[in-house]
Structure formats: C-alpha cells, structure tokens
C-alpha cells in the first residue's frame, strides 16, 4: 500500500543499520514526491535514554508536524532512531507508555496532504499495542524479520543485497560469509558489495571467493599472528607480531585469538583421532553427525558461535584452520595451551613488556628443538 493512502510511514526492525538505510530511501522518496525544499524538511532524533528525553523528542516532533511551511506546499518530517519502543527500562516505563499513547493520538490527526511523516524505530517490542496499531494504520515496513533467528535474518540480508546488486550468492558462500563477518550487518552488506565487484554482472559468489577475499573479522578472533603461528612459520609469526604492536595493538587480542583457535583445534584433533571427523575439501566432514553424539557434553546447545564449542562453528571454516589439511599433534596443542596460560600470567607481572612476553612465548612454541 502506498504512503499516500496512509497518514504516515513506519519502518521498524531489530537492526538499526537496516532500518536507517530503508528510512533514508523512504525519506528521499517522500521528499521527491512532495517537492519539499530544504526549508520544508525536518529530520529529528527519537533516541531517548530516559522518560524525560522521550517527552522532549515527542514535543519536538509535535512542533515539527504542526509547523506551517513558510512558502506553502507539503512538509516532510522524519523522526528517526526511535529506541523507546523497545523492551527496555525506558520503553516499559509508565511515563513512556503514556507519551507513546499521546504520539499515537497525534499521528491520527495528521493530514498527509500537508505533512508527510516518517518514523523509523529499532529495536521494537512488537507485542506492544503501538507497533500493532502502526501495522494497521501506517505504510508499514518490517526490516530483517522479527529477529527470532539472527542467522536467518542475516542470511536474508546477504541474499537480498546480492539480488539488489544483480548477482547470486550460494548457500555455502552465505554460511561462510556469516562465519567470517559475524553479526555485524553493516560489514556484511559491505562485504557482499565488495564480492559483487569481483565477478561479472549476473554471476555467482561462490564459497571459494568468500574464502579468498573476505577477512576473518568475527569476534576479533582471527589475526595475522594467529594465522602465521598455526602454520609453524616462526619468522612470519614474529614479523606479524611486530607489525601488530607497531600499529598500536596490544597483547590481549593476540593471545585471545591464539587461545580461541587452539581450543577449536584441540576439539577437532580429538574428534579426528576418534574417527568421527575427517578433513576434506569441504572442511571438517562429519562435524554435524558428531554434533548429534557430543553436543550434550557442552551443556545446553549454544546458539552463538563460541571457541569453547566446536559444534557452533562453520564446518568449512573449522577444516581450514588446519594448515595444509594437517592437524598439529595433540601433545603440541596441549603444550600451546599451557604456554598461553603462562604468557597470560606473565603479562600481569610484566605489563610494559607485552611484546617481549609474546615473542618469547612464540619462540618457545615454534623454535626447533635443540
């Protein structure tokens, strides 16, 4: 249904980036349709940290929609970044609920021929009466689904962006992209755009292209030092460590990335030794079958990716953690973990010598035995 048939436009969703992006598109369309000049356009912030700020935001909105255009014509008003419709202390407050009721009453009195109004909100609690009322009475758009399944919503975002760009994204490529990027929607969209420029129009983004071009950014757990360390290349690892500290990095992300990867490799080594998993061209073959037998050992099934639970990882990515398809010996992985613990304790004692502590640890782990 078009915006002209309703008093106002309401865009909402769980992800503020997606909501804001669609909001900008709708605002530009409304401004173009109305012919409103810069003096007849208002963009107001609906972000509020407490009930008092909710009251101020709605008061500014009321003033804006009730202002008569200086040179006649139609006004366009956008109340953006609304966060007081969420299931939050501010959103649940009695004062906020009363103010939202006042906002609803104000919206019913709008004349769309005089003022085009756009509201964008993220996140929202769709159980409340106001969003339900908006769904029936506004030009309503829900972006990214209800947020019940973050992985499904993000996959939909990636696939939708690929379609918009005139390319295809295979299911395996989408899974690997999420494993590498994590839940950062903005970064996910930018990565799809980057990948699309690497293929012909109408082409397909394959898993291999994602593996080649998309950096590992999820959870801060993939750094060059870790990549080099697990190849066993001592000179490369030391050079990567030097670059990390030269660019202003500190020890915590490095040792965290090493520990996270080592934990996954320990679990993978145990599964491989037991014959439950083998490394193949598509990563860790048999990981999903092994999950049926061993997931219970980790307690409740985890929905989010975790280095403590190999079954929350992407099977293709897990298999690629083993350089050249070869897993380090179990003894080496156990020794690595102990060295990481020792280095962490030493960092507490020598906080100003972090690079030296990590360099010494790496040499102990990778230097050939005398």
Automatic annotation (TrEMBL):
GO cellular component: DNA polymerase III complex
Family matches, as SUPFAM superfamilies: P-loop containing nucleoside triphosphate hydrolases (SSF52540)
Presence of the UniProt keyword Transferase in the record: yes
Keyword Transferase: yes
Keywords per UniProt: DNA replication, DNA-directed DNA polymerase, Nucleotidyltransferase, Transferase
Matching Pfam families: DNA_pol3_delta
Biological process, per Gene Ontology: DNA-templated DNA replication
GO MF annotations in UniProt: DNA binding; DNA-directed DNA polymerase activity
Residue ranges of domain DNA polymerase III delta N-terminal in the record: 55-136
Protein name: DNA polymerase III subunit delta
